[in-house]
Amino acid sequence: MHFTFQNSELLPGLNCIDGRWVAAHDERLFPVSDPATGEVFAQVPDSGAADARAALQAAHAAFKTWRKVPAKQRAQIIKRWNDLIVAQIEDLGRLISSEQGKPLAEGKGEVLYAASYVEWFAEEATRADGQIIPAPVPGRRMFALREPVGVIAAVTPWNFPAAMIARKIAPALAAGCTVVCKPAEDTPLTSLALVKLAEQAGVPPGVLNIVTASRERAGEVVDVWLDDARVRKITFTGSTPVGKHLARRSADTLKKLSLELGGNAPFIVFDDADIDAAVDGLMSAKFRNGGQTCVCPNRIYVQDAVHDEFVQKLAARVGALVVGPATDPASQIGPMINARAVDKIERHVQDAVKRGARVVVGGKRLSPEGKAGAYYYAPTVLTHVDAAMQCSCEETFGPIAPVTRFSSEADVIAAANATPFGLAAYFYSRDVRRIWRLADELESGIVGINEGAVAAEAAPFGGVKDSGYGREGSTHGLQEYMHIKYLCQGQLD
Ligand code: NAP
How far is 248 from 340, CA to CA, in rounded Å? Predict the structure, then answer.
């Protein structure tokens, strides 16, 4: 069973370059499938270098005028875009769930989450002010102005097909930049729909361009943008190896970069914590989007005295999760995005069990209704997990909760930081001194303290170490798309 869509305009099935909806130059296509069934339900352009160049040419030409559009007018267009996104919540939610697999309630939740960034940056557009600097000598006036950096290339992942692109494009447009973007192979449709709505909101031709590409041709498209000096910034969300590749390849043209990369979040429960709140927090942080989020707890540390109680309460909640397709309103955990994803989860669980972990609940692939090609994995709790296991070293990106017992605060801080990644970290404690010690010690861009749901448009989202640099959301999110120009006027005395 598939969703039906009320507004067929949201499914253009073409690239948008310079305000025209066009096929790839060589007319190649690639299929988009429903991860719940493996069934192909749409085709989109499989673009190459020629399409990437055309998109860049359009964005470069449009920058000359868009940067001069008054901030208030840009803000009004972006605000209309927000209104259209919110008005299309039903279709956009279904589109997200169809291509990405998350339950429909989460698909619709993502629409509002994406829109919250669009609205935020519409408002921020009018506040991109500068600074008047007191001159150190007579007869001078000194100013720091903020200017848009130029053409932005945005490359996005599949796990939040609306939110990831919204929180890049909205600040770029607000700052006065123009955009070329390439969404992930698995989820191109939501991005195309958002660009369609941006066009309807009044974003002028050439200001926002999108080309879709298969995984095989992603490099060909993005390399054009990496190598061209007219692209002044790359904004990327995705894996750390691809992020490092983008940083290396953009070095020759010294582009500005925002890299939102992989995580390996610790989630620590101290014996002074409110255990029920900690279980609630873990359920929301870990099992949103089936565990396929970059800020998802990947290593759960529970202190000796509360370990058994926590595991027992957690296992009861995890065992009760309903797994199924997005079309079923009862579903709480959808399919994983593709076969590679479910293979990785299976590999991590098998490796952990081989090395001594115990499966408390779950621990196996599922195929609801006996369907082949459905990428389901049972929500799982593992105990007796140690630092050498694959599930502790790498992001599993699935509904697996691996629990490690710990004794001392110093040991758990060392364990939590013993990773190259530093995106999110969580801990539960009611001791105020401990709370501030942990807040200082954790090497992470985001820290949830007695809170599992940390993301918000008003907050700076981003990591440290191998989780990247740059921030999305908040006032910092706009500055990523601007540079500072210093003006010094003399001879005034
Ligand atoms: P990915 O493989 O790095 O892909 C991300 C994007 O890069 C996709 O559009 C992909 O295209 C493209 N890409 C792949 N290879 C490329 C290449 N050689 N040159 C240029 N572009 C290339 O990551 P993913 O598997 O989609 O996403 C999961 C990862 O993203 C996880 O590590 C997760 O933690 C991270 N993530 C981070 C955040 C954050 O804010 N920090 C948020 C969400 C996800 P194709 O789809 O066609 O391969």
Answer: 26
Tell me the two tokens of residue 88: 């299309």
- Going from the C-alpha of 113 to that of each of 85, 232, 380, 437, the distances in angstroms are 11, 28, 27, 32
**Is residue 156 in contact with ligand 1, taking CB distance under 6 Å?**
yes
Alpha carbon distances (Å) from 331 to 72, 92, 369, 419: 43, 18, 14, 33
- Mean pLDDT score of the chain: 97
Q: Is the pTM of this model over 0.85?
A: yes
Render 448-493 in DSSP notation, one character per residue. EES-S----TTS-B--EETTEE--BSHHHHHHTTEEEEEEEE----
> Is 48 within 8 Å of 220 (Cβ atoms)?
yes
Of ligand 1's listed atoms, the one at least distance from the Cα of 219 is 19
Q: For ligand 1, is residue 250 a contact (CB within 6 Å)?
A: no
| pLDDT per residue as tens digits for the range 84-112 | 999 999 999 999 999 999 999 999 999 99
Dihedral sign computed on CA atoms, order 417, 419, 423, 425 = negative
Q: Could you report the per-residue pLDDT of 193-218, keeping only the tens digit for each?
A: 999 999 999 999 999 999 999 999 99
Strand partners, 468: 260
| Token pair recorded at residue 35 | 């991860």
Instruction: Look up 119 and say whether it is catalytic.
Output: no
